[in-house]
Structure formats: structure tokens, C-alpha cells
Write a structure and sequence with these properties.
Order of helices and strands: HHHHHHHHHH
CATH architecture of the largest domain: Orthogonal Bundle
Radius of gyration: 18 Å
Largest sheet: none
Helix content: over 70%
Strand content: under 5%
CATH superfamily of the largest domain: RNA polymerase sigma factor, region 2, helix turn helix motif
CATH class of the largest domain: Mainly Alpha
Structural class: mainly alpha
CATH topology of the largest domain: Rna Polymerase Sigma Factor, Chain: A
Number of helices: 10
Number of domains: 2
Length: 184
């Protein structure tokens, strides 16, 4: 069933339609959040909250919008939930702290090529945070510029410029970075 049909069924209180949406997007949403928190339990909580909000706000979802995308809308909710989570913690999260958390939780054991991942993370920590997030969404999470635009509230052109300028900034390392990201 197409997304508009599922949304309309949900709006008429068809719980089965919601579970189809949930099944379709749960893995993508969890991975999206996990990559921003690097904590299984926090990612599970935020994912749960994300789908609660999807259910709560689905009646207000406008399928008539020009760049209609249920996936982008759900990821925008997830992104805002992650931002809210860190804002409520009122602490800055540094990439070094995330890497330490990975080591503490033995996440390195789950990654086949941890040396490449460490190189990528070491390199990315020098980029401006918003640029790093947009670059990761585009390259690592394979989101379109339209999806990134909806999630970050930036224009598509702005997202394209950020990716382009960030890649130019790291000119000599771009090939290495892309190879590392694509070969994980």
C-alpha cells in the first residue's frame, strides 16, 4: 500500500496501517538515532518516543505538500527528539566521548573494520558540527538533499553547498574519506 493510503487509514484510526508504517521505518529510525547517540538504550527510548509522536501527530501530516515524504517527516521527528534529548542533558557531547562509550560497550567488536571507522571519526571531529551532521546524513545515511533539508530546516541548496564546501575543505582527504565510508 502506498504511503498516502496508509496515512489516510491511520487518520481513520486503523491501527493495522500504523503498524505497517512502523515496520517499514523502525530500522531506519533506530539506526538514524543510534548513530547520533551511540547508546542502545537511549536510541531505543528516543525511537519509541519518535513513533509515539508519529502516532500522535499523524492526523496533522499534510500529504498535499509538494515534497511529500513520510520517511523525511518521521526522520525529522527523530532528529528533533535527539536534539531535545541532548538539550535536556545540557551537556556537550564530544566525539572522543562517543568513541570511549563505544569502547566501554564493546561496540568495536561488532564492527568489521574498526580501524577505518576510527580514521573517519578522527577526521570528522574537525568539521563544524552542523556540517558534519549534514555530510553524514548525505554520505553515510544516504539521505537525499530533500530529506536532509526537511530534517535540518535548511534549504536543499544550502545543504548542497555545505556538502560541497565541506568536501572541498578536505580536498586531499575526500577520496580517502569516501572510500572509508563506502567500504565499511
Amino acid at each position: 500500500m502506498d504511503e498516502i493510503g496508509l496515512i489516510n487509514l491511520c487518520k481513520s484510526w486503523d491501527s493495522q496501517a500504523f503498524w505497517i508504517i512502523y515496520d517499514r521505518y523502525i530500522d531506519k529510525v533506530y539506526d538514524f538515532i543510534y548513530f547520533k547517540t551511540y547508546d542502545k538504550f537511549i536510541a531505543e527510548d528516543i525511537t519509541s518516543d519518535t513513533f509515539f509522536k508519529v502516532l500522535k501527530w499523524l492526523n496533522k501530516f499534510d500529504t498535499q505538500k509538494e515534497n511529500f515524504s513520510l520517511k523525511s517527516w518521521i526522520l525529522k521527528i527523530a532528529y528533533n527528539n535527539v536534539v531535545d534529548y541532548y538539550r535536556s542533558k545540557k551537556e556537550e557531547v564530544w566525539l572522543d566521548d562517543i568513541i570511549e562509550k563505544w569502547i566501554e560497550n564493546n561496540i568495536w567488536d561488532e564492527i568489521d573494520n574498526k580501524a577505518k571507522l576510527k580514521e573517519v571519526l578522527d577526521y570528522l571531529k574537525w568539521l563544524e558540527q552542523s556540517h558534519r551532521e549534514i555530510l553524514i546524513m548525505r554520505i553515510w545515511e544516504n539521505l537525499s538533499y530533500a530529506e536532509i533539508s526537511e530534517i535540518t530546516w535548511k534549504t536543499q541548496d544550502n545543504c548542497k553547498k555545505i556538502v560541497s564546501r565541506t568536501l572541498v575543505k578536505v580536498n586531499s582527504n575526500v577520496t580517502l574519506l569516501l572510500l572509508l565510508l563506502l567500504n565499511m
